[in-house]
Specification:
The chain is α+β, with helices and mostly antiparallel strands. The protein is 46% helix and 15% strand. It has one domain (26-143): 3-Layer(aba) Sandwich (Collagenase (Catalytic Domain)). It has helices at residues 2-20, 35-48, 86-92, 95-111, 132-143, and strands at residues 26-27, 30-31, 58-63, 71-76, 79-84. Helix 4 (95-111) packs parallel to helix 5 (132-143). It is globular and about 40 Å long.
Length: 151
């Protein structure tokens, strides 16, 4: 009986340690290091879609394994997750690059936007940094025609 209690206590402590680790802290499914970026881009999108956006409530944004990509969107029947390459995020992107990458993935997930063949467009499949004014103009033109951008 004592061994079972010890085993249960060990499992409990391992789980508690895992979920108290700051690298795995989430706010509404958003990694704590990504919350400020997420909030900013949701606000940008809401300002573009004056009447709001239609978005599922089951949303996850986190760092994880992305194979050769720097990010991807995985859609589910009741929501989506965005997974970003952590090394690329911290070592290759400045603030505007992070914004562009997150908006790119958000457009896939929220608006069902496909890749664009113009290599100077933020929805081009390979990351090519563009200036923020161009990014915001392209974003507006891209999402305003989506049915998830309420009018």
């Amino acid at each position: 009986m004592g061994n079972n209690r010890l085993l249960i206590l060990s499992v409990f402590l391992a789980v508690a340690t895992y979920f108290s680790n700051p690298f795995f802290t989430f706010e509404n499914g958003i990694n704590k290091d990504l919350v400020s970026y997420w909030d900013r881009e949701i606000s940008t999108i809401k300002n573009t879609c004056k009447a709001g956006i239609s978005m599922p409530t089951n949303v996850s944004v986190n760092f994880g394994e992305t194979d050769d990509a720097i990010g991807y969107c995985q859609k589910y029947s009741n929501g989506f997750k965005i997974v970003l390459n952590e090394q690329y995020w911290y070592h290759n992107l400045d603030g505007s690059g992070k914004r562009q990458l997150l908006l790119h993935e958000m457009c896939h997930c929220i608006f069902n936007i496909k890749h664009n063949s113009d290599e100077k467009h933020f929805m081009y499949p390979e990351f090519t940094k563009i200036d923020e004014n161009t990014l915001l103009n392209q974003l507006e033109g891209t999402i305003k025609s989506s049915s998830n951008c309420l009018r």
